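Hello forum,

I keep getting stuck at the same step: I have a sequence, I want structure tokens, and every attempt I make locally crashes halfway through. Rather than fight my setup again tonight, could one of you with a working pipeline run this one for me? It's a single chain of 201 residues.
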Amino acid sequence: GCIITDVGSTKVLPHQWAEEHLSDAVHYVGSHPVAGSEQRGVEFARDDLFVNARCVLTTNGPVHRGSVKALRGFWSALGCFVETMDPAEHDRAFANISHLPHLLAACLVNATEKADMKLAGKGYLDSTRIASGPANVWTDILQANAENLSQGIDHVVAELSELRKAIQAGDREKIGALLEGARRKRASLINYKIRKKELLS
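Reply #2:
Ran it on my machine without issues. Output:
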């Protein structure tokens, strides 16, 4: 009757582990509270960490409904909005919205000359903040979600290539269309998060 969960950023491997090592009497449901920052350690603890944060529960195949209900209640009591996903779909989505941004932030820092970085303003610091995350943790995450992440990298490379061609060709209209498309897409996301009370207006 024991319920086991975790708070990791990938879910396919934990579900595989649970299937191999846990008895039928034990109920595993994955948890991914989408909260926190690039910092680690008790000195960065916050009492409101989970307030208005999203928590994704993952289930694979037949699941003990009481376990899901108990975990939903647990995370809701901490202030989270809770939803349930398939572990493979979870890993695909978070490769794009969590793991890929970390990789891109690290690449941007590595591609920038150290002397030039001293001139950086808030935009550069905002864009690269998550590169400050612990390397050992992120190495594990990137390896655990390698296939999905590789596809995400391909998509970003295609977007960069399209923008580079437009810049080299001096195609102002194309450049503007690509930038405006991104601006509108992000604005729609921000409005959604405000409506869901995950962001303050």
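The CA atoms of residues 96 and 155 lie 10 Å apart. If your local run keeps crashing, start a new thread with the error log.
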